Predict the structure.
Amino acid sequence: MRRYGEGIQDYGDYILHYKGETPGLYGVSFLIKKKLAHRIEEIKGISERITVLNIVLPLNKNQKWSIIQAYSPTESNKNEDVVKTEKFYKDLRTTIAYSHKNIILMGDFNGQIGTFNNGEEYTVDKYGHGKRSKNGDRLVTLALENELRILNSFYKKKKTKQWTWIAPNDHKMVRARLTSTPTKRKRMFHKEISPSVYIFNGDQLKTILEKPIEKNKGNSVPIQEKYEKLINTLQKETKKVNPRSKSVVSDETKQLLHARKELLQKKGNIINRGKIAEISKIINKNIRKDRKLKRQDTLKKHIEKTGGTKKAIGQQEIPV
């Protein structure tokens, strides 16, 4: 919606509220069924990028809802664009703070949230797509602060439905069927898979295993039973001696994740939201750092072992 100024227009069965400050650019609006007009408490244009509709919806016990329509600036490294984006999110936080308890936040946020990280399970679910962008990072942080769920990530979609535009083109509605000749693939030849080799602390393991062996000496226990007990002890204790974890998160990051989780469990207030925002920024920075260190360690290990990086590069995508 790119209408200049702010106003309400009648369109038969619908009413249109619009807000715009730059002729021909930006702008947000609501198109509301006229039969719901008597339920509207307020329609307020905060800026040309944010407008809010406070309404009593005919749901359970006629609950009050705030529906916020937002249009985020696009991502850019220019200082003036970064300032615009920060102002947009500041205005959005203020709008949410003065809204009803029940909130629907919708619109175009010009970003990708990607897949979820540890501590974001409430906000982002397993159906996120792609890599997280800077705007996506800002959106996830905002959602965490205000206990909002990004519903797109909670429902599985076909790959063809997971995008609406391709940069650098503008937004386009697509109604077409694309067909193409599939590329002929070469036959894959699988190399013989070598068994995994586990390296244990031998002295520690030996000490642990000697105890049940000494205990059973002289007892009239069947050999098979002794063998089964030994195997069970071996399987149990080797996991303790040499635990294997795929997590790349450092202890410092884990502590921050735990601290944020505790804040999220408390009913939100402005002070808690500020703390969550600060912790989230540090967590995101630390996770990037942890992943970088893990990649470097993986490359170093395989270069020292094989002299090449091919296998190491194949192991770069490691879960957090």
